[in-house]
From TrEMBL:
Organism superkingdom: Bacteria
Domain Glycosyltransferase subfamily 4-like N-terminal span(s) in chain numbering: 14-181
Keyword Transport part of the UniProt annotation: no
A Pfam family assignment: Glyco_transf_4
Name this polypeptide is given: Glycosyl transferase family 1
Cited PANTHER family: SULFOQUINOVOSYL TRANSFERASE SQD2 (PTHR45947)
GO molecular function: transferase activity
Record's keyword annotation contains Cell membrane: no
Keywords of this entry: Glycosyltransferase, Transferase
Domain Glycosyl transferase family: 201-337
Amino acid sequence: MRLAIAHDYLTQRGGAEKVVLALAKAFPDAPIYTTLFDADGTYPEFSSMDIRPSFLNHVGPLRRNHRAALLALPPAARSVKIDADVVIASSSGWAHGFQTTGRKIVYCYSPARWLYQTDAYLGDGAGLAKRVTLALMASSLRRWDRRAAAQCDQYLAISRAVAGRINDVYGLDAAVLPAPVTLTALPDSEMETVREIEPLVREEDSYYLCVSRLLAYKNVDKVLDAFAGSGRKLVVVGRGPERDALVAKDLPNVTFLQDLSDAQMSWLYRHCRAVVAASLEDYGLTPLEGAIYGKPCAVLRWGGFLDTVVEGVTGVYFDNPDPRSIAQAVTALEEIEWDPRVIANHTSQFSEEMFSSEMRHHVDKLVQYA
């Protein structure tokens, strides 16, 4: 059986790209098709893989900034043709529309946010030009998007919330397959110290950790405001278009980091007090990565976090992504005596082995009934 993997664009480091790495490990002979591939911007493991980008990849500025490529992505997606018996399309907007000669399974992180959750995607700070561009393109893109979805053979959703969204947008039923936790617990000797944070750890001054792409709907600005003037230390890891505005808040108790290795992330999780996340999240991966090291979390009671966090056992919820609610949740977290072993054991149901086994099952089933 000839199998291929498809992904929207490989230009950044995030949870979706970690899923693609897990798929590549499960299906090592499968080439990976995508619109854009920036080896320097994404995980280094991709550099040794068979990556097949679209014609758009020749345009360097777009390769390094996929958000600027929005107008060019529809023709780029339509141009990708995959000759394979089965394609696993890892998608939140484009890869499900790649042309293929065989069957197609879509592993969906969400129907395109910029089409169906535009206000949340753009946030309050989006400029008029971006809003007008999306408004002009939205109608034709929705038609293309729904036609692409209708031509797929099976949808898998990353969470129950996304499965409901797939049904609402496309009228399709989707089985839920949780994304794997690919970060593994490392012994201290294999971790890599993050020098910017080392003084805090050396002085036993614990910090909270927020790991996120810096986009409007991730609500990292609300997390910063919750920590402002609190005396609590916060470390934010991630990159994105909101970074300059967040850094401009100039909070002395907040440190910004980006482009860290797994060994460095392990070190950060190992030494943090807890993970904090206020994003409108399709899944909820960072609380699970922290849980590997027995760390609790304070997260928004929304979307994918409902699948990955057990209230009072692995973390606490807050009901609204506003600074006051976040600060209250962090205070509540500090008043609970957490059991690190129970928290760590919770992650076993999200293992990479279970994810790979379930994905192979769906592929085999699709071929069997072809």
